[in-house]
Specification:
- The chain is mainly β and 264 residues long.
- The chain is built from no helices and 21 strands.
- It has strands spanning 5-6, 23-24, 27-28, 30-38, 43-51, 54-62, 67-72, 83-86, 89-95, 100-106, 109-124, 127-140, 145-156, 162-169, 182-185, 188-190, 196-197, 203-205, 211-225, 230-243, 249-263.
- The strands form three sheets. Strands 1, 4, 5, 6, 7, 8, 9, 10, 11 and 12 form a ten-stranded antiparallel sheet that branches. It has a nine-stranded antiparallel sheet with strand order 16-15-14-13-21-20-19-18-17, with no helix packed on it. A two-stranded antiparallel sheet has the order 2-3.
- A hairpin with a 5-residue loop joins strand 13 (145-156) and strand 14 (162-169).
- The protein is globular and about 50 Å long.
- The two termini are 25 Å apart.
């Protein structure tokens, strides 16, 4: 009844790193770790996903000309714990801003997420690089049919101050606070008011009319319908410019948007 809570979950409610039961409220446990790293030269992601006993890993890389990647049910080929590793890249990441943690009701159960900005160094296609990005750790008992739109990215203001952001509609999006809406300026976290990721994944609108525009460069997408299980998503890699909710002007930005409908 106290949910949503921004910060550590109420005592007795199991969230990572505690062990979570396989099923609660009639729903299977879902959990994932997504590492996104983005910049002017490269944009990439690596992730592991688990729905009940089913497991999946994927990676993708946009090099400015070609989108490459792979999805596999095998627990090999992708690493995301302190690193972002896949056949074409090997980077070590570290936290680069205040962490965000939120627990919310969802259907008859609850869901949890933790997110924070990253800074990473390593190689992409054999080239030494430095990238910034975001870690998304999520777990919980999402409703049988779940729909969301998401936007996350990093950038800088005209004077070079680093910024990062995370917005979602459909998950952890309480209007009155306790949401996963987040803006980091110089690593310092704040929660803006209700924010909308557009249906067409072209822009984000803030509560005072602020607008962050996205220019899509490559799109990860997948559609599968097996009846009992279905997934339909699009996730563009994009560059950004405009104004973040709260009034921070972004001169240059890089990141992703996502539209996802899942039956799981």
């Amino acid at each position: 009844d106290v949910l949503p809570v921004r910060g550590r979950a109420p005592g007795g409610l199991p969230v990572p790193p505690a062990r979570m039961p396989l099923r609660t409220g009639g729903q299977l446990r879902k959990r994932w770790r997504y590492v996104g790293l983005w910049g002017e030269r490269y944009m990439l992601c690596a992730a592991r996903v688990q729905v009940g006993p089913g497991r999946q890993r994927f990676w993708a890389l946009w090099d400015g000309q070609e989108l490459r990647g792979r999805t596999s049910m095998l627990p090999i080929g992708v690493a995301v714990d302190g690193v972002a590793q896949a056949p074409l890249f090997d980077l070590r990441w570290e936290q680069d801003g205040e962490p965000l943690e939120v627990t919310s009701r969802h259907g008859d159960a609850y869901i949890w997420t933790r997110k924070f900005p990253l800074r990473a160094t390593g190689t992409v296609d054999g080239e030494q690089v430095e990238l910034r990005g975001l870690l998304d750790d999520s777990a919980g008992y999402h409703a049988r049919d779940t729909h969301w739109r998401w936007c996350a990215g990093v950038g800088e203001t005209a004077d070079g101050t680093p910024v990062a952001w995370n917005f979602c509609n459909g998950l952890h999006d309480a209007d009155t606070g306790g949401s996963e809406r987040a803006v980091w300026v110089g690593g310092v976290l704040s929660e803006p008011g209700p924010t909308t990721v557009s249906d067409g994944l072209t822009h984000v609108t803030g509560p005072a009319g602020e607008r962050l525009d996205a220019a899509t460069h490559a799109v990860r997408s997948h559609r599968q319908n097996l009846g009992v299980i279905a997934s339909d998503y699009a996730q563009p890699f994009a560059t950004f410019a405009g104004t973040l909710p709260g009034g921070v002007a972004v001169a240059r930005g890089w990141g992703v948007l996502e539209r996802h409908a899942a039956r799981w």
